[in-house]
Design goal:
This protein is an alpha+beta fold. It has helices at about 5-40, 80-90, 125-135, 145-155, 160-170, 170-180, 200-210, 220-230, 295-315, and strands spanning about 95-105, 110, 120, 200, 250-260, 270-280, 280-295.
Length: about 325
């Protein structure tokens, strides 16, 4: 009886050793097969970058998944109380402003005076860059010089850079042709080199923003990501307007502003802001256009208050 237990343990040890050897063999075969697979598989080709220089941040496309999007922004689609509060505020400031907002996530929208015409000032620079990318994306993309001009035009609002690219797209006729493809129906390019006196509406600026976020639109992912990337890098003294409506949880804020003393309006100021705010549960496109302001700072105050009323009101409605 004393000899039974040790013999059983020896048998168990023999079985354990045999099992370990078998497992090692199986693992060796598996590793070899996986190694052979990784050495022969070709990675799927990625879309070539048409616009990014080696020193540029990667133009990641922040576009949300494609889905049904409202085409025309009409009054009355948003909360009546929010629209009424925005309209009352604008009336109190002289009623020379317009607001259009679209939430790409929920489809909710707001439109106040959004079919009224305004001079663009520098917000047209986004349209100029979109027109240039539309022309270049089927071929070689932007040159190094064009990339440098685009960076200065959007992030610094450099006027000389805008004039160079305005000429590059063919001026007013080139912008008009591009806008037909981009779906802008209420934007009239200025004659000559005065791109800042292009006339537009808040509705059309919202359509322009939609081309930067719509995967099924005329601009490809690289072009859309490139423009939005630049709009996220505006220098600090120009980071006003639409961003005032962002919540503390916003994960992405994109903006282009325009401001000028309008000689055709007794030197009163045009102050405009267009942009995008991405935050949990919302993806806002916002356009606020104003004219008849007594100065730049007063115009900025109106733009920011209107953006905050509109986006904040819709957020809580």
């Amino acid at each position: 009886m004393d000899d039974v237990a040790p013999r059983g343990r020896r048998v168990a040890r023999y079985l354990a050793v045999a099992l370990a050897v078998a497992l090692c063999c199986a693992l060796s075969v598996l590793v070899g097969v996986r190694a052979g697979h990784s050495n022969t598989t070709t990675a799927a080709p990625s879309e070539p970058s048409l616009t990014a220089a080696p020193s540029d941040p990667a133009p990641a496309d922040p576009t949300p998944p494609a889905g049904p999007r409202p085409g025309k922004v009409d009054p009355g689609d948003a909360s009546a109380a929010v629209a009424a509060s925005v309209q009352a505020y604008l009336k109190g400031q002289g009623d020379r402003s317009a607001v259009a907002v679209l939430d790409l996530t929920t489809g909710e929208q707001l439109s106040v005076n959004a079919d009224a015409g305004f001079h663009t000032a520098s917000i047209v620079k986004v349209d100029i860059l979109a027109a240039l990318l539309l022309e270049r994306q089927p071929a070689q993309g932007l040159t190094t010089n064009e990339r440098n001009l685009a960076f200065d035009m959007i992030t610094k609002s450099d006027n000389d850079a805008a004039t160079s690219l305005w000429k590059e797209i063919g001026g007013a006729s080139g912008l008009a042709a591009a806008n037909r493809t981009l779906g802008l129906t209420e934007t009239i390019p200025a004659d000559g080199g005065s791109w800042g006196t292009t006339t537009t509406t808040a509705n059309d600026q919202l359509r322009l923003l939609q081309t930067l976020t719509n995967a099924s639109g005329p601009l490809n992912a690289t072009s859309r990501g490139y423009v939005l990337n630049l709009m996220s890098q505006v220098q600090d003294d120009q980071d006003w307007g639409v961003p005032a409506g962002a919540s503390a949880q916003a994960s992405g804020v994109y903006v282009k502003n325009g401001w000028m003393g309008d000689s055709r309006d007794d030197g009163l100021w045009v102050t405009n802001s267009i942009g995008r705010i991405v935050e949990p549960g919302h993806d806002w496109l916002v356009a606020v256009l104003t004219s008849g302001n007594t100065g730049e700072s007063s115009g900025i105050n109106i733009v920011e208050h209107a953006a905050t009323l509109a986006v904040g009101g819709l957020r809580t409605s």
